[in-house]
Design a protein that fits this description.
heterodimer; A: alpha+beta; Elongation Factor Tu (Ef-tu), domain 3; Rossmann fold; 4 domains; 6-stranded antiparallel beta barrel; B: alpha/beta; 3 domains; 10-stranded mixed sheet; 7-stranded antiparallel sheet; 12 helices
Chain lengths: 588, 439
Amino acid sequence: MEKENKTTGIVVGIVANLVMVEVNGPVAQNEICFITLGDERLMAEVIKVIGKNVYVQVFESTRGLKPGSVVEFQGHMLEVTLGPGILSKNYDGLQNDLDKMEGIFLNRGEYTDPLDRDTKWSFKPVATVGDEVKAGDWLGEVDENGQPHKIMVPFKMNGTFKLKEIAGEGEYTVDEQIAVVTDENNNDIKLTMVQKWPVKVAVGGFKEKPRPFRLLETGVRCMDTLNPITEGGTGFIPGPFGTGKTVLQHAISKQAEADIVIIAACGERANEVVEIFAEFPELDDPRTGKKLIERTIIIANTSNMPVAAREASVYTAMTIGEYYRAMGLKVLLMADSTSRWAQALREMSNRLEELPGPDAFPMDLSAIISNFYSRAGFVYLNNGQTGSITFIGTVSPAGGNLKEPVTESTRKAARCFYGLSQARADGKRYPAIDPIDSYSKYLEYPEVQEHFAKNISEDWLQNVLDVKDILLRGKETMEQINILGDDGVPINFHETFWKSELIDFVILQQDAFDSIDASTPMERQKYMLSKVLEVVGKKYSFDHFEDVSSFFKQIINEFKQMNYSEFKNDKFFHHQEALEKLINERAN
Amino acid sequence: MESQAFQKVYTKLTNITKATVTLKATDVGYDEIASVAGRMAQVVKITGEDITLQIFEGTEGVPTNAEVSFLGRPPQLKVSDELAGRFFNSYGDPIDGGPEIQGELRDIGSPSVNPVRRKQPSQLIATGIAGIDLNNTLVSGQKIPFFADPDQPYNQVMANVALRAKADKIILGGMGLSNDDYLYFKNVFDNAGALDRIVSFVNTTENPPVERLLVPDMALTAAEYFAVDKNENVLVLLTDMTLYADALSIVSNRMDQIPSKDSMPGSLYSDLARIYEKAVQFPSGGSITIIAVTTLSGGDITHAIPDNTGYITEGQLFLRRDSEIGKVIVDPFRSLSRLKQLVIGKKTREDHPQVMNSAIRLYADAANARTKLENGFDLTDYDERTLDFAKEYSDRLLAIDVNVDIDTMLNISWGLFGKYFSKAEVAIRENLVEKYWEN
């Protein structure tokens, strides 16, 4: 869609950020344009065309805009700029570098460069002259915060090329030429470290996208143990406000075993992003010893920033993720919250006076969400290396009702469901992931089961399924006790109930604000689960139902002290001994 | 209404609805304000030469030949130190009989703060109310509403919080405030000798509802003046945001927009976020903290207004009448301050987080025991103890008439733990129990 002469137009109508433009030439759906308003240029995107009238959504406030203002169309869709230097940047939804903006307030019409053009990167070639190369193939690499950042043949280049020249080892800026390739017609194409890609189109350039099979450790027990997510998997976290979505998301983004973490703060609270800005530069990444911020990219389009840019922000984040995946890296993408993105779609659909679907959301909401989730995944690259994007989105269901359109549509798209429960949050049982309703489809994948058997233990899967059964039985028993009364049921009902409480308190509940308990490595999860199952598997004798709760409360207390202690240090074993003593006194 | 020389005056309205008028005009900017038959109006839609104006006072009695002049600017407020101690209407005109304000004109509804320029809030706001300070600690730069039924004393609690919070300025944005409540605030602030720290923008129930839409922006423009220009800590009180949202739905309805949940406009989330996100800690030391009121109908928090609010604000405070002790308490289950983690155990004593959680867990156990009791089941010894604990906890800590410092609140909690429970039942980290347990 590149054009020789730029199409122009003039503004003829304005309703909030929807502007109607009369044009004098061809325009494309989703084409970017700039509206002139005094000295300012406001960026906008085409969302509907009727004859000569083009409807554009403006990524800024339209205050003061008048009919007759000149509009210039750019001939391309919304693009991101890809190259070294993206890591640890803070962008807005349109990939403007927020740190480069002047002043405390966001100025309308201020667009900043996503890359640092003056920084020199030490480049090492990995391809050799004469190689046949295709889009996405690696030509060289630079070191970006300790990660090998691959310089690739731009994704936009179709066909096969011959590498004619490649720069030698040395220091280059992103705009310096690092390679020349020739196409089939013997035309030379000069390449730098920078390329652009339209965000709404999925990046290809890989060989194969198999079903995900490897566990992605998050350190959150009720995910890793009970409902694991895989490298390249998709999951979503719906929950009413106040149930701990954001705390959980932050915990995952701090602890997960990923090379790159991208956080898309999409229409959420600014102070939550500030928390990341403040904490991540201080926190260590336990795997590399570097600071967490060095592996993190933040796309901040908070709730008070323009709504159209909010819609763009998730796509910007995904495209950057795809770029790093193509380098053979493990990317974790978190979007908080996809409901705000859906609401942005609704606001525009409403202004366009489209016939609404359920709850006034656009009719194609479900398709848009599925399409977006499908961009995540585990891939084999052309050179046999692997890369992945694991995507976890939060959903903020209106009124806490999981039957609303965004939750329903997401349920169809995502493979893991981590439903946050109001009742658990009220009881301060955090993380409030409902152990009964939540699921991970990956547990059913034979390739995932095989991975568990090989990397954790042969009986791991069975243990996990047993735990789920115990929790379900516990819930059923509790309901019966509530109906029949404490002394209206046999004592072993109480035992069943308290065994599920034990699992709840020791495995499911986790203190995200405690330095030790916050993150549990898989080895420790395995140890604790087998200890807990050992206790649960024993038979005990009780004279009275009240003895059951007081016994299990003591057990739970010892286990919790273990969770608060360094793994296998003196204190840990001290509490374990106390625990074993308690059990031996009571067990049959 | 101000007028300018050589201004073009239009006198032909083509359409009139209950809240809007349409006319043909040129060279008009979006969001610009205009005067229609002496009433203030704002451009809400431009289609070619057809300009639609929303008239804040309503269109009753507006003739088709009304004089319309455009002012070429968005709504503005004059800001200066003279604002302090004054009462204004929704347009920023004095209503206290005092002189006009001299100062700099600022557009209301200014741009957002760049998120990377914000500072992380870290200053605790002590209110003396344990239901807030102990369980839902407030931090400067936070935004938090009271979710309350209309018959609850939210305005009284809010006034108390405002006066104890030691803010440099308190800005009251009253929307649909009854005249009695307006006078209540005026008296309370006056009696506390705090009137010189207060700026009020008030739309009472006697004023047209659509005018309310200007109040939050007026209040926040004044707040930004004091917080940014003067580096002051500003507390903004917005009551009642439900009435603000109702006004939004009236306008969107008049403009034929498709309503989403509960007849609210589809943009409700963004509209509310734009206001609440003005709460900020500036790097230069100034801050804006917003405490709002969202009234509920029949306690229903799934309604679009409280629901969207809850997703935007950093927590919410619920008031509830506790029949056991006959007092209004801050409900520990449904209330939440999201920013408390930034200060509890850091700016307050180390045992604060665990004491808070254990007390609430035990209070929850008491609620379960009460359910058992109501269903006619026998209570265990533990149940009995939780009930006794809950009553004393409610009376000595949760009630809104409590006024003590945070260390005292913690000591009271430990006292209650020791009185009613064993160490295992309280289940707090061992080193804290060793240090603070009272027998």
